[in-house]
Amino acid sequence: MLADSHCHLTLLDLDAGASVTDVLHAAREHGVERLLCVSVDLDSYPAVLALARRHAEVSASVGVHPNTQTGEEPSCDTLAALARDPRVVAIGETGLDYYRSTGDMAWQQARFRRHIAAARAVGKPIIVHTRQAAPDVIRILGEEQARDVGGVMHCFVEDWDTARAAMDLGFYLSFSGIVTFRNAREVQEVARRVPLDRLLVETDAPYLAPVPHRGKENRPAYVRYVAEHIAALREVPAQVVFEATTANYRRLFAVD
Predict the structure, then answer these.
(1) pTM for the complete prediction?
(2) Of 7, 88, 167, 248, which has the maximum CB count within 10 A?
(3) CATH of the domain at 223
(4) 81: domain range?
């Protein structure tokens, strides 16, 4: 059994006649029986929640991606109210991205802090996106007492020092298809070293398809390739990574 700890089912470019049900069936055929469909803005959140209500294996999050600059700006109260739905298991994705957004990042940092406050208000973990902003992400997580709820550094691509700082704050590290790329040596080294009880796997579908599907639209079924590659890096049977990451998923997001 496997769990895809981060995917965007509502963003898949499905072929004519295909459906999310077909995608979930393909995932089950690859052993993927739990999925977290992650919100990127409040406008599309109802569709994310609807999928979680329709499919027992799918859970939802609520949040606004750090690069999103259209639609409703999330308040702490709004995020907390939406997150109280029992199908919502996390707040996010949130965080900081200094690659796609430039200039004064005070607005991004303020939004990040509101997400953390909402997570603490409802006692649910945080899904953190970071790109070229790791020092500020770690600092803000500490300042806002994110340790109280923990969470996951999704699509982890940072160095070991950042990994250790995140784990010291009670966070898990989730690896995407990037870890299968030949030139991703630093990420692979972190994947070798992270303790099994802090390890998660994800697709970030429809993005970042792993080898052997690199360059194609990603699907939750492909999380198996991520887990198998990490097992090979760690020189352990794939089942060890399958079982550990699934147990971690259940523990972090409080799902069966």
Answers:
(1) 0.96
(2) 7
(3) 3.20.20.140
(4) 2-253
